[in-house]
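Propose amino acids for all 231 sites.
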Protein backbone atom coordinates (compact mmCIF):
# COMPACT_ATOMS: atom_id res chain seq x y z
CA UNK A 1 0.00 0.00 0.00
CA UNK A 2 1.24 3.47 -0.90
CA UNK A 3 1.16 6.19 1.75
CA UNK A 4 2.60 9.69 1.92
CA UNK A 5 4.99 8.45 4.60
CA UNK A 6 6.22 5.63 2.36
CA UNK A 7 6.79 8.05 -0.52
CA UNK A 8 8.87 10.28 1.75
CA UNK A 9 10.82 7.28 3.08
CA UNK A 10 11.59 5.91 -0.40
CA UNK A 11 12.69 9.34 -1.58
CA UNK A 12 15.07 9.56 1.37
CA UNK A 13 16.50 6.14 0.50
CA UNK A 14 17.28 7.52 -2.96
CA UNK A 15 19.01 10.53 -1.41
CA UNK A 16 16.12 12.88 -2.25
CA UNK A 17 14.70 15.10 0.49
CA UNK A 18 11.04 16.11 0.35
CA UNK A 19 8.86 17.48 3.13
CA UNK A 20 5.64 15.97 4.38
CA UNK A 21 3.46 18.38 2.41
CA UNK A 22 5.13 17.43 -0.87
CA UNK A 23 4.79 13.74 -0.06
CA UNK A 24 1.10 14.29 0.66
CA UNK A 25 0.63 15.94 -2.74
CA UNK A 26 2.37 13.04 -4.49
CA UNK A 27 0.11 10.62 -2.64
CA UNK A 28 -2.97 12.65 -3.62
CA UNK A 29 -1.84 12.55 -7.26
CA UNK A 30 -1.43 8.78 -7.04
CA UNK A 31 -4.96 8.48 -5.66
CA UNK A 32 -6.30 10.59 -8.52
CA UNK A 33 -4.59 8.41 -11.13
CA UNK A 34 -5.86 5.25 -9.45
CA UNK A 35 -9.41 6.60 -9.31
CA UNK A 36 -9.47 7.95 -12.87
CA UNK A 37 -7.85 4.83 -14.29
CA UNK A 38 -11.13 3.04 -13.61
CA UNK A 39 -12.88 5.41 -16.05
CA UNK A 40 -10.32 5.53 -18.86
CA UNK A 41 -6.86 4.09 -19.36
CA UNK A 42 -4.13 6.33 -17.94
CA UNK A 43 -1.57 3.65 -17.12
CA UNK A 44 -1.15 -0.11 -17.32
CA UNK A 45 0.88 -0.04 -14.10
CA UNK A 46 -1.73 -0.50 -11.39
CA UNK A 47 -0.21 -2.47 -8.49
CA UNK A 48 0.85 -0.09 -5.69
CA UNK A 49 4.41 -1.41 -5.49
CA UNK A 50 5.01 -1.05 -9.22
CA UNK A 51 3.31 2.35 -9.32
CA UNK A 52 5.48 3.65 -6.50
CA UNK A 53 8.73 2.56 -8.13
CA UNK A 54 8.08 2.86 -11.86
CA UNK A 55 6.05 6.06 -11.79
CA UNK A 56 6.69 8.08 -8.62
CA UNK A 57 10.29 7.15 -7.74
CA UNK A 58 11.43 6.94 -11.35
CA UNK A 59 10.04 10.43 -11.95
CA UNK A 60 11.55 11.72 -8.69
CA UNK A 61 15.03 10.72 -9.81
CA UNK A 62 14.57 12.81 -12.95
CA UNK A 63 12.96 15.69 -11.06
CA UNK A 64 15.84 15.84 -8.58
CA UNK A 65 18.39 16.67 -11.27
CA UNK A 66 19.73 20.27 -11.20
CA UNK A 67 19.17 20.54 -14.96
CA UNK A 68 15.41 20.39 -14.30
CA UNK A 69 14.85 24.06 -13.56
CA UNK A 70 13.37 27.24 -14.99
CA UNK A 71 10.96 26.70 -17.85
CA UNK A 72 10.42 22.93 -18.16
CA UNK A 73 8.40 20.87 -20.65
CA UNK A 74 7.54 17.18 -20.38
CA UNK A 75 6.92 15.63 -23.78
CA UNK A 76 4.46 12.74 -24.04
CA UNK A 77 3.54 13.22 -20.41
CA UNK A 78 0.76 10.62 -20.49
CA UNK A 79 -0.68 10.27 -16.99
CA UNK A 80 1.85 12.85 -15.78
CA UNK A 81 5.13 11.01 -15.44
CA UNK A 82 7.59 12.54 -14.98
CA UNK A 83 5.83 15.87 -15.63
CA UNK A 84 3.36 15.96 -12.75
CA UNK A 85 5.99 14.77 -10.28
CA UNK A 86 8.35 17.49 -11.47
CA UNK A 87 5.57 20.03 -10.98
CA UNK A 88 4.90 18.82 -7.45
CA UNK A 89 8.48 18.56 -6.15
CA UNK A 90 10.11 21.49 -8.00
CA UNK A 91 9.32 25.18 -8.30
CA UNK A 92 9.39 25.36 -12.09
CA UNK A 93 7.38 26.91 -14.90
CA UNK A 94 5.92 23.61 -16.14
CA UNK A 95 4.39 22.72 -19.50
CA UNK A 96 2.86 19.33 -20.27
CA UNK A 97 2.84 18.23 -23.92
CA UNK A 98 0.65 15.27 -24.81
CA UNK A 99 -1.17 14.07 -27.94
CA UNK A 100 -4.08 12.50 -26.02
CA UNK A 101 -6.50 15.18 -24.88
CA UNK A 102 -7.95 13.26 -21.91
CA UNK A 103 -4.53 12.56 -20.45
CA UNK A 104 -3.17 16.09 -20.61
CA UNK A 105 -6.46 17.50 -19.31
CA UNK A 106 -6.34 15.10 -16.38
CA UNK A 107 -2.75 15.85 -15.41
CA UNK A 108 -3.16 19.62 -15.69
CA UNK A 109 -6.43 19.61 -13.72
CA UNK A 110 -5.01 17.52 -10.88
CA UNK A 111 -1.90 19.68 -10.61
CA UNK A 112 -4.06 22.79 -10.49
CA UNK A 113 -6.14 21.25 -7.68
CA UNK A 114 -2.90 20.58 -5.77
CA UNK A 115 -1.86 24.21 -6.12
CA UNK A 116 0.69 23.48 -8.85
CA UNK A 117 -0.66 25.16 -12.02
CA UNK A 118 0.93 24.39 -15.38
CA UNK A 119 0.51 25.01 -19.09
CA UNK A 120 -0.96 22.18 -21.13
CA UNK A 121 -0.42 21.62 -24.84
CA UNK A 122 -2.59 19.08 -26.62
CA UNK A 123 -0.31 18.36 -29.57
CA UNK A 124 2.35 16.07 -30.93
CA UNK A 125 5.85 17.15 -29.99
CA UNK A 126 6.88 17.84 -33.58
CA UNK A 127 3.91 20.17 -34.00
CA UNK A 128 4.58 21.97 -30.72
CA UNK A 129 8.19 22.46 -31.86
CA UNK A 130 6.96 24.34 -34.93
CA UNK A 131 4.87 26.75 -32.88
CA UNK A 132 5.66 29.65 -30.58
CA UNK A 133 7.09 27.11 -28.12
CA UNK A 134 10.09 26.32 -30.33
CA UNK A 135 13.40 26.74 -28.49
CA UNK A 136 11.75 28.33 -25.44
CA UNK A 137 12.44 25.75 -22.70
CA UNK A 138 15.38 25.54 -20.32
CA UNK A 139 14.80 21.81 -19.92
CA UNK A 140 12.72 19.21 -21.76
CA UNK A 141 12.10 15.75 -20.36
CA UNK A 142 10.57 12.67 -21.95
CA UNK A 143 10.01 9.13 -20.82
CA UNK A 144 9.27 8.07 -24.37
CA UNK A 145 9.41 4.62 -25.85
CA UNK A 146 10.87 5.84 -29.15
CA UNK A 147 14.48 5.16 -30.05
CA UNK A 148 16.90 7.94 -29.12
CA UNK A 149 17.32 9.47 -32.61
CA UNK A 150 13.53 9.77 -32.92
CA UNK A 151 13.13 11.12 -29.40
CA UNK A 152 15.88 13.67 -29.98
CA UNK A 153 14.20 15.04 -33.10
CA UNK A 154 10.87 15.29 -31.29
CA UNK A 155 12.26 17.09 -28.25
CA UNK A 156 15.49 18.98 -28.94
CA UNK A 157 13.83 21.66 -31.15
CA UNK A 158 11.86 22.72 -28.07
CA UNK A 159 15.04 23.38 -26.02
CA UNK A 160 16.72 26.78 -26.04
CA UNK A 161 20.47 26.97 -26.66
CA UNK A 162 22.22 26.31 -23.37
CA UNK A 163 19.33 24.21 -22.07
CA UNK A 164 19.01 20.49 -21.51
CA UNK A 165 17.09 17.50 -22.82
CA UNK A 166 16.68 14.52 -20.49
CA UNK A 167 15.62 11.17 -21.96
CA UNK A 168 14.42 8.53 -19.50
CA UNK A 169 15.26 5.16 -21.03
CA UNK A 170 15.87 1.55 -20.16
CA UNK A 171 19.37 0.42 -19.23
CA UNK A 172 21.75 0.22 -22.18
CA UNK A 173 19.64 2.36 -24.52
CA UNK A 174 22.37 4.95 -25.03
CA UNK A 175 24.93 2.38 -26.12
CA UNK A 176 22.43 0.59 -28.36
CA UNK A 177 20.63 3.57 -29.89
CA UNK A 178 23.03 6.51 -29.91
CA UNK A 179 23.16 8.53 -33.13
CA UNK A 180 26.02 11.01 -33.30
CA UNK A 181 24.50 12.27 -36.55
CA UNK A 182 21.27 13.21 -34.74
CA UNK A 183 23.23 14.95 -31.99
CA UNK A 184 25.22 16.99 -34.50
CA UNK A 185 22.31 17.85 -36.79
CA UNK A 186 20.02 18.90 -33.94
CA UNK A 187 22.67 20.85 -32.01
CA UNK A 188 23.22 18.88 -28.80
CA UNK A 189 26.13 17.23 -27.02
CA UNK A 190 26.04 14.42 -24.49
CA UNK A 191 26.24 15.88 -20.99
CA UNK A 192 25.90 12.81 -18.76
CA UNK A 193 24.44 9.30 -18.56
CA UNK A 194 23.18 8.27 -15.13
CA UNK A 195 22.51 4.61 -14.34
CA UNK A 196 20.20 3.62 -11.51
CA UNK A 197 18.24 0.63 -10.23
CA UNK A 198 14.76 0.89 -8.76
CA UNK A 199 13.76 -1.14 -5.73
CA UNK A 200 11.86 -3.59 -7.93
CA UNK A 201 15.09 -4.40 -9.78
CA UNK A 202 14.28 -2.42 -12.92
CA UNK A 203 17.38 -0.73 -14.38
CA UNK A 204 16.96 2.67 -15.98
CA UNK A 205 19.15 5.43 -17.40
CA UNK A 206 18.86 9.19 -17.53
CA UNK A 207 20.52 10.39 -20.73
CA UNK A 208 21.20 14.11 -20.45
CA UNK A 209 22.06 16.29 -23.44
CA UNK A 210 23.05 19.95 -23.53
CA UNK A 211 21.85 22.16 -26.37
CA UNK A 212 24.91 23.85 -27.84
CA UNK A 213 23.50 25.41 -31.02
CA UNK A 214 20.11 26.34 -32.47
CA UNK A 215 18.29 23.56 -34.31
CA UNK A 216 18.06 24.11 -38.04
CA UNK A 217 14.73 25.15 -39.53
CA UNK A 218 14.38 21.83 -41.35
CA UNK A 219 13.81 20.04 -38.03
CA UNK A 220 11.69 18.54 -36.72
CA UNK A 221 10.39 16.87 -39.84
CA UNK A 222 6.87 15.44 -40.10
CA UNK A 223 6.20 12.65 -37.63
CA UNK A 224 5.97 9.92 -40.26
CA UNK A 225 9.33 10.93 -41.76
CA UNK A 226 10.98 11.02 -38.33
CA UNK A 227 9.83 7.48 -37.61
CA UNK A 228 10.57 6.04 -41.06
CA UNK A 229 13.97 7.67 -41.53
CA UNK A 230 15.58 8.42 -38.14
CA UNK A 231 18.66 10.63 -38.18
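Proposal:
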Amino acid sequence: MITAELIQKRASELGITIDGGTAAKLFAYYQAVERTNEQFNLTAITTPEEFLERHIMDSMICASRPEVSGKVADVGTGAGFPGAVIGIVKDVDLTLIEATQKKVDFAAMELRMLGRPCTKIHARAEDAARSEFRETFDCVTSRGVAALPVLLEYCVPLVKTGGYFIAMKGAGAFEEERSEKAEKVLGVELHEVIHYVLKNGVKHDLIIYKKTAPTGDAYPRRGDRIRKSPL
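The chain has ten helices and seven strands. Residues 20-36 form the longest helix (17 residues).
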